[in-house]
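Section 5: illustrative case.
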């Protein structure tokens, strides 16, 4: 059986607004990006691990962990408004020009210390099962139901839709959010060129709620550290 060639892309810009140097900031004493790198290595799933960055500082830190960066990301692909899909296309074309091709492209986010190699192995089984006819996205279930949302109107809070507030949670359909850990594509996806041709539909790998923190601010960071320490203690 042909071995699947997988590319792990870890997108890590040097610029970050809410948390300075977020992608290389120490998480419990270790640069946070190392957790993603180590999980990818330990899974033994990937033919190549590439950290996409325009930052020489990040390049130096990453290469200390044994990941060689074949080429840097351009500054044009490193601003606040560049879609990640453009970064992935750029990388795939760079490798294509070197006559290097991959069957699966895994984008693993750099600030996901709660995602480990065991998760990655389970995700690879899902990819094999569905043959990556659609991208696979990390998702998590809203809790409590998003239908119970309020909006702020001046100093008061108003239900977005009062009819849902009259229903029990078990009588409301589940809703999910992108938990921000990864997204996985087949090579064919990039041949098709964009999400529209794929109808904006995804396969979902549901992450446990305690692992679905999107680290955007100091509060998220501190909570993730608490959860990580608890997970390590439980697994001893």
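Designed sequence:
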């Amino acid at each position: 059986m042909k071995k699947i060639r997988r590319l792990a892309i870890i997108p890590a810009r040097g610029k970050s607004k809410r948390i300075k140097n977020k992608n290389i900031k120490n998480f419990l004493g270790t640069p946070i990006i190392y957790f993603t790198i180590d999980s990818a290595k330990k899974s033994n799933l990937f033919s190549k691990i590439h950290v996409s960055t325009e930052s020489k500082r990040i390049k130096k830190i990453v290469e200390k962990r044994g990941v060689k960066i074949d080429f840097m990301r351009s500054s044009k692909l490193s601003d606040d408004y560049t879609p990640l899909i453009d970064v992935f296309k750029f990388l795939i074309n760079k490798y294509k020009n070197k006559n290097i091709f991959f069957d699966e492209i895994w984008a693993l986010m750099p600030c996901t210390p709660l995602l480990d190699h065991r998760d990655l192995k389970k995700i690879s089984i899902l990819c094999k099962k569905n043959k990556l006819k659609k991208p696979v996205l990390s998702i998590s279930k809203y809790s409590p139901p998003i239908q119970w949302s309020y909006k702020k109107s001046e100093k008061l809070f108003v239900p977005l839709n009062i009819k849902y507030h009259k229903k029990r949670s078990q009588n409301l359909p589940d809703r999910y959010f992108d938990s921000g850990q990864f997204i996985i594509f087949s090579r064919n996806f990039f041949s098709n060129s964009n999400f529209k041709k794929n109808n904006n539909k995804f396969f979902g790998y549901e992450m446990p709620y305690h692992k679905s923190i999107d680290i955007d601010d100091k509060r998220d960071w501190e909570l993730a550290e608490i959860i990580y320490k608890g997970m390590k203690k439980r697994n001893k």
